[in-house]
Design a protein that fits this description.
Blueprint lengths: L1 H5 L3 E4 L3 E4 L4 H11 L2 H4 L5 E3 L4 H11 L3 E6 L2 E7 H8 L15 E2 L12 H11 L3 E11 L2 E11 H12 L1
Parallel strand pairs: 3-4
Antiparallel strand pairs: 1-2, 4-5, 5-6, 7-8
This protein binds adenosine-5'-diphosphate.
Adenosine-5'-diphosphate (ADP) binds next to strand 5, helix 5 and strand 7.
Length: 170
Amino acid sequence: MAILTATGILEARPKVGYFYSGKKGFNLIADYFKNLTVSEIKSRPVVVNEDTSVYDAIVTLFLEDVGTIFVQNNGYLSGVVSRKDFLKIAIGNSDIHKMPIGMIMTRMPNIITIRDDDSVIKAAQKIIEHEVDCLPVVEKVDEKNGKELLRIVGRVSKTNITKLLAQFVE
Ligand code: ADP
């Protein structure tokens, strides 16, 4: 019953009860995805502090089995680091034990973010448009000198969205 109402096949009206909405295949799938929010599919974020060494961040990447790490400063989102960012620095001559992650990350305000109540479709569009693998899910906490201070509350990656498609068909 929950699936039938969530997908819009059945509609519920007070006093009338459940009735067939008349919606057909493609519209149902489109509506299902349009109404799904980021909060329903997000994963736990993997976050390190800005002074963490590049070496320790790479260890975290392996231990947590993720492709993107988020960086925070004083509890607020300050950066994003991807697999290729790590590769770039690791093939150079830098001492990755001494180098802080803050030196290699993509920084605010250049980070593409998403919010809990945004639609999954919006997240997918941002991932495609900006050619990134993963978005931090954020909440605006405050503002300082005209800059937003964002708390990291989740992670949405290409994997989350692919899983959703597979589950839907199953
Ligand atoms: P990879 O570099 O491993 O292919 P991405 O395509 O996700 O992974 O990252 C490409 C570049 O974009 C990297 O330099 C990374 O720091 C940056 N990046 C990754 N995610 C984001 C994001 N959400 N917002 C802004 N920049 C990002």
